[in-house]
Hints:
This protein is of the alpha/beta class. The protein contains twelve helices and 13 strands.
Amino acid sequence: MSSQIVRKAVIPAAGFGTRLFPATKVVKKELFPIIDRDGRTKPVILAIVEEARRGGIEEIGIVVQPSDRAIFEAFFKTPPKQALLDKLSDANQEYCQYLQELGERITILTQDEQEGYGHAVFCAKDWVNQEPFLLLLGDHVYTSDTEIPCTRQVLEIYEKTGQSVIGLTEMSADIIHKAGCVTGVWQEMNSILTVTQVCEKPDLDYARSHLRVEGMAEDRFLGIFGMYVLKPKIFDSLADSINQNQRYKGEFQLTTCLDTLRQEEGLMGYWVKGQYFDTGMPEFYRQTLINYGQEYRSS
């Protein structure tokens, strides 16, 4: 197998969803409903899995809390009860079969202790098994501005460059403190970037001084899109971070390890031709419900 082929995707879904409390006391945030562009009401996690499959990913590992394993397995691997199945339309009965087939590609992984996003990614190490992998946030859904899915766009940059890739998007000054941010040197203007720094949730003064990118308008920055293709070397950086107890706000983060990966192997950025929709905070989830399925509603 070529080292450039990416077969697996990892989706961390083991957080507590504290910003969506009290709804997350009874429903995992990854199971919150959205109306997808095909008109179906889906849990967020299904839309993310389908995005991975549209990009050509063969296997998906979802990292969850041990107590939530049964919930995710029930959705992806257990058919509905006959009483419900009998009430579904022929189209929805066919969709049930599709979900069962999709479930065969999914492995449920566990994070025994909730030690942060980087730690959740590390919990997929053995399953990834020294392969490059696609990493997707568990609370972001995506739409492409072209016929090429967002995941496929990022995967193609990895295949082209042979280096780990961070999907990027333009961010304004008022939200950059909530996101990871990068700077670097364009290889293809407004498209492919050699990353020279990765920074976790910078304040605006720091971003203005250190994270400007050529050609970007004033107070516009390149933020992380929520989509990565990573070589397995990232697990070495994560292991070092965990072993040395290097935490950010009490948790093991991915961003600092990405910067280590950049220094050791190089790291590319790609300005994705598409949009991400954040479902992890109330104000963003509300906007996602309005905008994400707009293409379906206007057709």
